[in-house]
Amino acid sequence: MAGLNRRDVLTMLGCSAAAWPLTTPMAFAALPSDNRLVVVVLRGAMDGMDALRPYGDPHLATLRPDFALGPQSGATDLTGFHALHPGLGPLLPLWRAGDLGFVQAVSTPYRSGRSHFDGQDILEAGTAGDVPPLRGRDGWLNRLLPLIPGAHGRTAFAVGRDEMLILRGPANHASWAPDARLDLAPATADLLLHSYHDDTLFRESAETALGLSGSVAQVAGKRGQELFAFAAGQLMQDARIAALSLGGWDSHRQQERQLQRGFTALSAGLLRLRDDLGPVWDKTMVVVMTEFGRTAFQNGTQGTDHGTGGTMILAGGALRGGKVWGDWPGLAEVQLLDRRDLMPTRDVRAYAAWALHGLFGTGHAALSSVVFPGLDMGPDPGLMA
């Protein structure tokens, strides 16, 4: 790892511990409603401007001169302004059917440190402001359950060893984990990838070894589809809410290669969920969230760094999709937050709250005080089909 000093290594360790968790938590809860909700947390700060590329903004090409951007680079045009990352291309039929949509320029209220740990805690706790001591708190999905008449505990399945904060709390839940044949610390996994990145002889072997532990793009391949298939199996029974997290989205280096793999596998997982749910898909909404976005401009290692405004991915037959929600703030330097990040134009919790209202009938007052304390839900974005 030539060129890395001690501070670089410590920074990488800090990032990888949050962005490449060895565990992939998944949890379920049963509700009397016939609608289903699947919340997917992408750990590591997924670059929303790569998932949904705003190629119509004239400043994008200047900020990311070495990145593939619009339709001319293999992305699929969606709106004449936005293009879909090639790895998400298999989801195009969902977009055309109204079962896929995106929310641009969203963020939690977190601003101060751009820390994976604090950002993920605030995202899953659903609280407002920068409140670092969140560990031990309950999560917003757990606070939702008592608000739904007749809701009862059902098996809550956490893939890995740790419980997700988003479902932590007094409402009953449990966990489930697939077998893993190799136990490798996440920090070690990340450092190993960086070490062998430019070594064509050992890179693939390193990725194969890490794949056995679930440490490389935990949505990858059959392992990722296993998680979505298991979720579908539970939702076909009496579970109504599923939450899972997928690691490996921290793209400081060689983002194009890393996110191609991640988005391809995420697409396969979502399509597996649709296929396995069958007619239940029409009653399902999938909310894909991440702790924050990434810098508007590329860095010196063909990646992006921790930012603020990001993108939310929505899917499911219960969605009125085929559209992009949210106001676009622009990418001129004076329009960026701190002259580096996409400026958020709405709280990501507002869209989650409107999804809960539409799916389960939860009242506005409870959503803005109990589930998401201090939230201004704002106008109805019209998510429901």
From TrEMBL:
Signal peptide start-end: 1-29
Keywords: Signal
Keyword set includes Manganese: no
Annotated PANTHER family: BLL7424 PROTEIN, DUF1501 DOMAIN-CONTAINING PROTEIN
Protein name (record): DUF1501 domain-containing protein
Organism (species): Jannaschia donghaensis
